[in-house]
Amino acid sequence: MNIFLTGATGFLGEYLLQQLLARGHRVWALYRNEAKKEKTEQFLARQDLFPHPGLNWVKGDVIALDQSWPLWEKELPSLEKVNHILHNAASLRFKSNAEGEPRRTNLEGSKALWRLTRQRPMQVHLISTAYVCGLIPEGTLYEVNHPRGQFASAYDESKWEAEQIWTGQATILRPGVIVGDSRTGRCSSFTGWYIIAKGGYLMDQFLKAAPEYDRQDLQIQVPMNPQATLNLIPVDYVAEAVVRLIENPAHFNRIFHLTHPQPPTHEWSHQVLCRRFQLGGIRFVDPGQTVSKPNDPIKQMIWDQVHRMYAYFNNNPAFDRRHTDQALPDLPLPTINETLINKLLDYAIAQDWGQKKG
């Protein structure tokens, strides 16, 4: 393929770029930040994929795709060869900010892509999220267009709105909650599941300096269904699945759930994190029960982290994967087990949860 990739320097984007180049495709990669571009080149170099004759960098903003394209073609005539766009650029913010994110990037970027393809027809492939379904306490979600629901975050809502522009006219790829590389633990975006994992880590760090606390009996109540699940999916699986799907024209303009068929329950994840950070006395209570925020500043650590992800933790859909399983019967799914969770935690801690420089 000759493919234009948006969001090429983001966490998923650089894995998509790696897969595209490794599988012999020619890529025009959109970026905004020079420092992030350099880090992506370093990542590719470690895979012996940089420098690469099939990689062309294009600097610009996704919300101006339609305006910028004619200028880019003058600067880079080879852009005329592009016949696919893999639209991956996204703001991962859960809540809206003063700059209009995440809606600015996620919806306005999709609109700009729509305007571009009215002038310059190309096959479009759109990275969305499985959680465009909105808040679903239970039940199975299928690989179809969903009606507007009650959303857990501004991010999910903006992704649903973007899908409405493209349903039936683009390949829609819906990953679950993306975590680090199943082989190395590598991650560069410590959002989602990492928020609650960081809460356990910070609690452990505080308790090391506060021996008066009984870390095995913290007496913290968490309003959450212990049997609900969070659909974790490693980034390396998502990237390979996406690229293999869009290589086959039989899959174009269909919807695919890139989710895990056996996601961990909150009870299992809770036990793993408590073992890792030697914590006890954090107990589940009915999600409908009113639980007051603890006055104790150390116990507030867990409380604050849990409540940032509260809506997700009480959202419990099962994701049908029929389209994905039929299309990719031979692509193995990484097992979500304690070894993998500890690998993800080791990497996150080594990187200071994304705060480490360089």
How does this structure look, described?
It is globular and about 70 Å long. It starts with a strand and ends in an 8-residue tail after the last helix. It has helices at 11-22, 34-46, 65-75, 103-119, 154-166, 193-208, 235-246, 266-277, 299-308, 310-313, 322-327, 338-350; strands at 2-5, 26-31, 55-59, 84-87, 123-127, 140-141, 171-175, 177-179, 220-223, 232-234, 255-258, 282-285, 318-319. The strands form four sheets. It has a seven-stranded parallel β-sheet with strand order 3-2-1-4-5-7-11. It has a two-stranded parallel ribbon with strand order 6-13. It is 39% helix and 14% strand. The mean pLDDT is 93. Helix 1 packs across helix 7 and helix 3 (65-75) packs across helix 4 (103-119).
